[in-house]
Amino acid sequence: MNQMIRRRLLSASAVALLSATLVGHATAQDKVQLRLSAVSSETDQRAVALAEKFGPAVADFASYEPHYNATLFAQGAELEAIATGDLEMSITSAQELATFFPEFSIFTAGYVLQDADHQVRVFNDEVFDAFKQKAEDELGVMLLAPMYLGRRQVNLRQCKDELDVKTPADLAGVNLRMPGTDAWQFLGRALGANPTPMAFTEVYTALSSGAVDGQDNPLPTVVDAKFYEVTCQIALTSHLVDWNFIAFSKAVFEELTEDQQQAVRDAAWAAADFGRENQLKKEEELVSFLEENGLTVYEPDVAAFRTHVQEEYLKSEFAQTWPDGVLDKVNALGN
Ligand code: KDO
User: Fold this and answer.
1) Of 23, 60, 84, 301, most Cβ neighbours within 10 A?
2) Which pLDDT does position 173 carry in this prediction?
3) 3-149+243-279, superfamily in CATH?
4) Predicted local confidence at residue 10, as pLDDT
């Protein structure tokens, strides 16, 4: 394990110890306790998929216990919690993984992943094996399956007649909430905006008070988190086809029998596949729901955004961390 990760985990362990004391580890049965810490609500399609497809499929030997709305661990603290033995599962992101392993930033870059199928092909390709292995070896976190979050769009308080977003230049000075890691902040800047770091659970209030001008998320999240109640427009930039991973403690996995391990892997994929289908359907359906609720949903000059964002990434320090040839291989797996 490298020094940087060791230091972070040592400082995390004090926090983890406190959380563990607060949540307790007791489980009624002899089953393996699988607590999931999620930032999303329980009605988010990834959460629904895990509850319907993962929990029941492992119920013979494990008790699946999801905690929503970042009530168990704060957004971004989950990987450390798994690494220090204080959490068993989370829905993690490439952005969070990039805080440990900078090369994961390739999967946080705008306009690299093209769609849900591309994500699955990349995850299953040998090009992704080294990424999975590193998370496993150095953090004790297994990435079991890719969960489709969706195409991130720019969602603003200003109505279109006040702010008509055509190109990145139109976002100059726009105070755009992005999640709180460097990879996220860079994406906000690459879009031309002025990014503000903020945890997901604070976004609704910040939008409603005007502390931020907007936020970026896929349409299903805009609806599930009710951001549409406090915003006026959505510019369909589709700047990041975002994904998360079902993260699982390697130490817990190794305690399972081979059959149980296979059941965990299969259940994770069943949940990921189910969640992806549902999320894709929602992305299509929700434009009319949002319009009925008074939002203007429109396409800006996506080519202008793509060109600008890709240029920003290629000259950034992030691109320096991408292993040779990986971008070409990822592109080759696209359409
Ligand atoms: C967000 O904070 O905007 C984000 O979309 C980031 C994702 O990686 C993921 O954590 C997601 O929030 C939460 O699961 C809530 O949907």
Assistant:
1) 84
2) 98
3) Bacterial extracellular solute-binding protein, family 7 (3.40.190.170)
4) 58
pLDDT at 197: 98
The answer, yes or no, to whether any atom of ligand 1 lies below 6 A from the CB of 181, is no
Which among 30, 265, 8, 253 has a CA at the least distance from the CA of 144? 265
Ligand 1, residue 178: give the atom nearest the CA: 3
pTM here is: 0.93
**Alpha carbons 265 and 241: distance in angstroms, whole number:** 24
Give residue limits of the domains in the chain. Answer: 3-149+243-279, 152-240+283-321
Tokens of 324: 């040779």
Ligand 1 within 6 A of CB of 179 = yes
Rounded (to 5) percent helix, strand, coil in the chain: 50, 20, 30
| Mean per-residue pLDDT pooled into runs of 10, the chain (335 residues) | 64 49 52 98 98 98 98 98 98 98 98 98 98 98 98 98 98 98 97 98 98 98 98 98 98 98 98 98 98 98 98 97 98 96
Mutate to test the pocket of ligand 1, among 71, 108, 187, 217 (most ligand atoms within 8 A of CB): 217
**Nearest Cα residue to atom 8 of ligand 1:** 93
Distances (CA, A) of 207 to 126, 187, 204, 210, 289: 41, 19, 5, 5, 20
Quote the pLDDT of residue 18.
45
Among protein residues, the one whose CA lies closest to atom 12 of ligand 1: 200
Question: Could you tell me the distance, in angstroms and rounded to a whole number, from the CA of residue 60 to the centre of ligand 1?
Answer: 31
The pLDDT of residue 26 is: 44
